[in-house]
Automatic annotation (TrEMBL):
It comes from the Bacteria. It comes from Niastella soli. This is WG repeat-containing protein. InterPro entries: WG_beta_rep.
Length: 271
């Protein structure tokens, strides 16, 4: 009897240990899969604890983006007090459903917009969330896709590409900054402007005295009159009178312009 009790105790301890070794990967406030460890390697289980990917990677990232998860072999864990993380040696990619899209081979990998920007042998390219090449490594400089639009540098000029690898517009630029709130700052021939992700210049290139990135779907620019003006993502200027200084803030769903006009503090609702 005592031997039988001891056997069940060992099994119980073993089960608890295995459960403790599991790390959940969550989405919509529920576990979508689990990372498990075996012989120093990590693998993936489904929600019923069935093996999706046998333990074979040194590291599986504990979160997913667009159903994709980064993995590595050969890197190292970092525990430096204030910083706890992992240094990748090479980046691979798996799906939450247990499909290995790429074993670790990329020098960098950023997931965005149901795709991944990858760096291989000093060149950037793009792969889909199915593991197919959208654009093979071609570019020295490239940004992740944003709502179907990627920024790349080709022939020393920046251009906008769609997910077919085609240019969205013919225009090229000396620089394009990352998209934020659907808009990016562009420069050409020492002139500045604002472009949306569809390729429309919502603020024409010009010699503005200042230009700010978008917050709460409103950017700012400074005209020759020395005043700041707000501009929304459609290119509209919601407040015609200029500001001495201005910013945006949100209170719930309401967005306000807060700043100075003619030396007086103002707060103007924008939506």
């Amino acid at each position: 009897m005592k031997l039988l009790q001891l056997f069940f105790l060992i099994v119980l301890i073993s089960c608890k240990r295995k459960q403790a070794d599991l790390t959940g990967i969550y989405g919509d406030n529920k576990a979508l899969a689990y990372i498990y460890k075996e012989n120093g390697k990590e693998g993936l289980l489904d929600t019923n604890k069935n093996i999706l990917i046998p333990a074979q990677f040194d590291y599986i990232e504990h979160w997913l983006v667009d159903g994709l998860i980064r993995v590595d072999s050969g890197g190292e864990r970092v525990n430096g007090g204030d910083f706890v993380g992992y240094n990748f040696k090479k980046y691979g990619l798996i799906t939450i459903g247990g499909k290995i899209l790429f074993r670790p081979k990329f020098d960098d990998l950023t997931i965005s917009d149901n795709s991944a920007l990858v760096l291989l042998d000093s060149l950037y390219g793009y792969i889909s969330n199915n593991g197919d090449w959208i654009i093979k490594p071609t570019f020295k400089t490239a940004y992740p896709f944003y709502k179907g639009t990627a920024v790349v540098k080709a022939d020393n000029k920046f251009v906008l590409l769609n997910k077919d690898g085609q240019r969205i517009i013919k225009e090229t630029f000396d620089s394009i900054y990352s998209f934020k709130n659907d808009v990016a700052i562009v420069t050409n021939n020492k002139k500045w402007g604002l472009i949306n992700y569809r390729g429309r210049l919502i603020l024409p290139l010009g010699n503005y005295r200042g230009l700010g990135e978008y917050n709460y779907y409103h950017g700012i620019f400074k005209k020759d009159d020395g005043k700041w003006y707000l501009i929304d993502t459609a290119g509209n200027i919601p407040v015609k009178e200029g500001f001495d200084s201005v910013g945006t803030q949100a209170e719930g769903l309401i967005i306000y312009a807060v700043g100075l006009q003619n030396g007086k503090q103002v707060k103007i609702r924008l939506n």
